[in-house]
Specification:
The structure is a homodimer. Chain A is an alpha/beta fold. Helices cover about 45% and strands about 15% of the residues of chain A. Chain A folds into 3 domains: about 15-80, Arc Repressor Mutant, subunit A, CATH 1.10.10.10; about 100-130 and about 380-485, Aspartate Aminotransferase, domain 1; about 155-380, Type I PLP-dependent aspartate aminotransferase-like (Major domain) (Aspartate Aminotransferase, domain 2), CATH 3.40.640.10. Chain A is built from 16 helices and 16 strands. In chain A, helix 5 (about 100-105) packs antiparallel against helix 9 and helix 8 packs across helix 12.
Chain lengths: ~475, ~475
């Protein structure tokens, strides 16, 4: 098509006409730098000239430096010396909007200490991949592909892969949360689930109630959406209900959502007791503030201790939107989470999801469904509960032994949260980094710029030896700082 | 944990005390309907009572209808008769924001004619899954899993899987678009790519220039973001540059982006000639309007005809954001696309992506990389170019033969777009539906409510026989309508 306007004219030798024609295409930018030309045989056919003329034209252009050949690969355009026109230079940062600015500012990955293999890093709470059962995973892939074949690789439905939706419905039933008027939307992990809800139901300036501290990613997403965040303190003994009731009296009618992480809360690791869950649910119901319940790490708890999510109080209501995710403990690289909520909500969210990314990978949904449905997940969860449980209890003992603390939060999970006695955790981090130990300073989890003397230790990817070694170093560093401050 | 506050008190028999305690938990909702109780042995341990007392308590509660047993599964709570409290009923639709409302209103899937197997459907332009080479796909999965193991299943980077990023960089080089100052972000298909860019760089009310007609999903996303869409007509001979220059003179300085689909444009199937591409690029540069180039279906064209994307003019500038996607022709169920743009842009988009869904599935990226890198894609593309090329030329001949048309747009691709002579395409659709033939009415692709007498025929999933049969029926129905209108 690009060579379709070539015409032989006048008395100039054909190879010169070809050369001039190609030169003009290169000059105009229609044959860009680095682009591959047809072979001499192909071009002679396209232009309807002899192959020898094309060879001669190519040779001339090579001599002029506008073409070069790579053995066995072909002939390419080299127009770098032509690029003299003033470059188009847009000041992109200046065009950025508030959403992007906030998402960038609060992106902790961008401000992280670079990882190196000699560090003991307590930063991560992502699962230990060595615990994944890869053979069973491969079997699930093969089994699902043999059932569905190319259907898993073509367009699917925004709501998700039907067998997975049904499985998650049953799964919510086991959590005591089944409701005839609710259904499931499969999402790209918790993050997308939370973002979709805010994208669909909030406006900048809306107020959301949440625990203080809370999951830093949730804070980031809320801030990016321009949400006015109202934190309720979590103390040593759990959520401060007095503070909550005061806030409700003051702002009750203008609060859009309550966002809560009742199980192995991030970062504190606290588990909200059943009575507090019910009390919280009833308070929100009284003020008609819908609850977004984050099922974070609930799987580490579930069936071992019989505490049910808040959504289990809502089986005949529509006030709780539950967000679940396996990716905190299983295959986070696949990014599968879900929302379980009133069908009217899901119906609206489906269109918003379709507007954002059509649907979540059907391949991943299919393979994960097979893995879950075959009972492999139950075996896996028993194994990891034991492994992570041991890490937590070792870590807790080490913290008690080595770290001069105000108190230690939490009942278990993939991390442990510590309040120090007035020690600046960021200064502590700088000092520990010199000793090859890093952790997450706690202030990023606070909604009100507090928590300068708190820190979170992620345990999931460390050996018991490194847990003890690292905590000992942190403790010694705190002792040094205390000594200096005397 | 939930049973930790049980205490034996007074003189009542132990099994009665257990029964009363469990009743109170069920009453409070702390043991929700359908939830599973511990086995009698487990509970006797937890409560520190004899197993016989627990058995007796369970039996009493069963007799009262609050528990039931399922053989081999356990004992479950049945509290349905307790649910008498007034339900929590939130009016969700009323809480919805403008973004969700628009995404729902413009969601064509929700207003679609239900599919049935006896229909000849020209609606879809998704690829024919029977053409996917499943054996090679499985090999790519196995090969990538053996290289990366559980790393593909754990958290990855927002920008994407490094080998895929590098592959796509080389791929853009082959398109003549390589720039030292540009890089790649992997996205969940075109839809996420476009949404991310608008989410980061636009505000409601911003003006975007695009072809009229254009891709209806793009119109939906722009409208959801509150964009003021300024269409430039595509006539039989391509983009109306006179109209474009008029608009630029009037609004040039207040236009935020130009959005363009130069190859096998959706819905018209036109391919913008190289000279028009350069002219368009230079015009946008003159007015400093950055271009979002949609590489839609370019793969069907690439290397067979040497037309380079607009981004190939921009190798020393930063004015073109290129969006690529394999999912129009290959494995759309995996949702993999990419953005190739200035590193400063990508750097900002990475944080926005991380705020939306952390990253695109690393499993899918890894498998797709292996498939692309092993040369299987090149073989596949040769095969499908032939298959889809034949479908297009058959369809074109059939349209010329059977359909009384004003003109037929397009040069190829997965679809063909037709302008009728004043026939209402929606009425035509209703009539054809009765004859078991459906297609996409063209008006959904227009930015200005025009196109009532246009339609798009998607060809990718139909046999040659059905293409002819269906087009013949459409043509006959048009003749009937013409007859009636005489």
């Amino acid at each position: 098509m690009i060579f379709s306007d070539f015409k032989l004219e006048g008395n100039l030798p054909i190879y010169i006409q070809i050369k001039d024609y190609l030169s003009s295409l290169i000059n105009k930018g229609l044959l860009p730098n680095g682009s591959k030309l047809p072979s001499t045989r192909e071009l002679s056919k396209i232009l309807d000239v002899s192959r020898n003329s094309v060879i001669a034209a190519y040779d001339e252009l090579k001599a002029d430096g506008f073409l070069y050949s790579v053995n066995g690969k072909g002939t390419f355009v080299s127009s770098e010396k032509l690029i003299t026109s003033s470059d188009w230079n847009i000041d992109w940062i200046n065009l950025e909007n508030e959403f992007s600015r906030t998402a960038n500012e609060l992106d902790i990955v961008k401000n992280e200490i670079p990882w190196s293999s000699d560090l003991i890093s307590f930063k991560s709470i992502s699962p230990d991949g060595d615990l994944f059962d890869m053979d069973e995973f491969k079997k699930s892939f093969m089994s699902r592909i043999s059932v569905e074949s190319h259907k898993l690789l073509n367009y699917g439905y925004a709501q998700g892969y039907k067998p997975l939706i049904d499985f998650l419905g049953d799964y919510m039933k086991k959590k005591g949360s089944f409701s005839k008027s609710k259904t499931t939307l499969v999402t790209n992990g918790f993050t997308e689930a939370f973002d979709l809800i805010l994208s669909s139901f909030t406006k900048p300036g809306d107020m959301i109630l949440c625990e203080n501290p809370t999951h830093n990613t949730s804070i980031k997403i809320m801030r990016a959406h321009g949400i006015n965040i109202q934190g309720i303190d979590i103390g040593k003994d759990g959520l401060d209900f007095d503070m909550l009731e005061n806030i409700l009296e003051k702002h009750g009618n203008s609060i859009k959502f309550a966002y809560l992480t009742p199980s192995y809360h991030n970062p504190t690791g606290s588990v909200m007791p059943p009575e507090s869950r019910l009390k919280f649910y009833n308070l929100m119901k009284k003020y008609s503030i819908p609850i977004i319940e984050d099922g974070f790490n609930e799987e580490l708890l579930y069936s071992s201790s019989h505490i049910f999510p808040l959504s289990s109080f809502d089986t005949s209501g529509n006030g709780v939107i539950y967000i679940g995710s396996f990716s905190k403990i299983l295959f986070p690289g696949m990014r599968i989470g879900w929302i379980y909520a009133d069908k009217k909500i899901i119906n609206r969210l489906i269109s918003v999801k379709r507007c954002r990314n059509i649907h979540t990978s059907f391949l991943d949904q299919g393979v994960l469904f097979d893995y879950l449905n075959s009972g492999k997940f139950e075996k896996y969860i028993k194994k990891i509960r034991k492994v992570y449980g041991e890490k937590f209890s070792v870590a807790r003992k080490c913290v008690e032994k080595y770290i001069d603390n105000e108190y230690i939060w939490g009942d278990g999970g993939l991390h442990i949260f510590i309040k120090l006695k007035g020690i600046d955790a960021r200064e502590l981090l700088d000092r520990c980094y010199n000793k090859k130990v890093i952790f997450m300073p706690g202030d990023i989890f606070f909604t009100d710029n507090n928590g300068y003397d708190t820190l979170r230790l992620g345990l999931s990817r460390l050996s018991l030896e490194d847990i003890e070694k690292g905590i000992k170093i942190i403790g010694e560093t705190i002792d040094e700082m205390n000594e200096e401050n005397k």
